[in-house]
Amino acid sequence: MKLWKVGKVKKVFQVSHEELEFEFTDQISVFDNVVPTLIPRKGETLCRTSAYWFERARTMGILTHFKEVVSPRRMRVVRVHILEKPTVTDSNYLVPLEFISRYYAAGSFLDRVKSGVIDPKNVGLSSVEYGDELPEPFIEVTTKLEKVDRPLQKKEALRISGLSKEEYDEITEIILKIDEDIDEQVKKRGLIHVDGKKEFALDGDRTIMVVDTYGTADEDRFWDAKEYEEGDYIELSKEFVRSYYRGIGYHNQLYAARAEKVPEPDIPPLPPDMVEETSQLYINLYKKITGEDLYES
Predict the structure, then answer these.
(1) What span, in angstroms and rounded, lies between the C-alpha atoms of 219 and 150?
(2) 71 contacts 297 by C-beta, under 8 angstroms
């Protein structure tokens, strides 16, 4: 088994021509940059949470690349190819798109509404404030293989992904089906599923397959349901760390540099108290999502 690829938070090993192994590290990334601080047990929570959702998808008849967990931080998955310019005749490849489904106003979605990039009327509202529940799910697409994710219109998404319109629509249906299950499960344990990211591939028969990970504190945003009812928004996901970097001014500095196309500022490490809080957030959220205690699993 050889190291094949190193991502922001995962290492990928080639087991065979048909199989890969993911190692979930304790690294954390925000705004497409890796924080120079490790978060204890983060990798284990992501691996176990991902496996939990993949198993549930399997029971719903949804195809995924997941095969098995081989250690607390490692799982085996089906290998797919990365194509530079996929077409509708290709198969067994990673769809070079990220699909984001949103159910509440938060994060970059709200930023774009406030800046006028997104018209509130496009989501069925006259105005939008932080925490507002959207009348309908809002699904958008970004690039997957570019250095910084870029929002796409459907026409360009189809062109660069090699998907047919029917396959694109089928992916949307799968997202809604998965998110309905996520919402139903986490509500039982006092969480609100705010939004989430998913990735897909086409297998050798061009059957749609869910890949990478989803439903974790890295890919999805969760709020405490009780606090939400009282008007407070308690971030129970990686957004907790994003908020820290917004608070110290790094987010503004970073995006100003990107807009001006000048070298980006280095992301500072997290202080010890933030490391401890973040580690506990991931551990506690694992229990709230799955109903299982990490220390006993």
Answers:
(1) 17
(2) no
pLDDT band at 172 (very low <50, low <70, confident <90, very high): very high
pLDDT of 296 strictly over 90: no
Residue 189 to residue 241: CA distance in whole angstroms: 23
Write the pLDDT tens digit of every residue in 83-133: 989 999 999 999 999 999 999 999 889 989 888 888 888 888 888 899 999
3-state secondary structure the chain: CEEEEECCCEEEEECCCCEEEEEECCCCEECCEECCCCCCCHHHHHHHHHHHHHHHHHHCCCCECEEEEEECCEEEEECCECCCCCCCCCCCEECCEEEEEEEECCHHHHHHHHHCCCCHHHHCCCCCCCCCEEEEEEEEEEECCCCCCCEECHHHHHHHHCCCHHHHHHHHHHHHHHHHHHHHHHHCCCEEEEEEEEEEEECCCCCEEEECCCCCCCCEEEEEHHHHHCCCCCECCCHHHHHHHHHCCHHHHHHHHHHHCCCCCCCCCCCHHHHHHHHHHHHHHHHHHHCCCCCCC
- The per-residue pLDDT for 107 is 86
Domains of the chain: 2-290 (3.30.470.20)
Q: Single out the residue of 159, 169, 220 nearest to residue 192, CA to CA.
A: 220
Percentage of the chain lying above the pLDDT 90 cut:
85
pTM here is 0.91
**Cα(284)–Cα(89) distance, rounded to whole angstroms?**
45
In angstroms, rounded to a whole number, what is the distance separating the alpha carbons of residues 76 and 116? Answer: 43
Q: How far is CA 150 from CA 61, 87, 147, in A?
A: 31, 20, 9
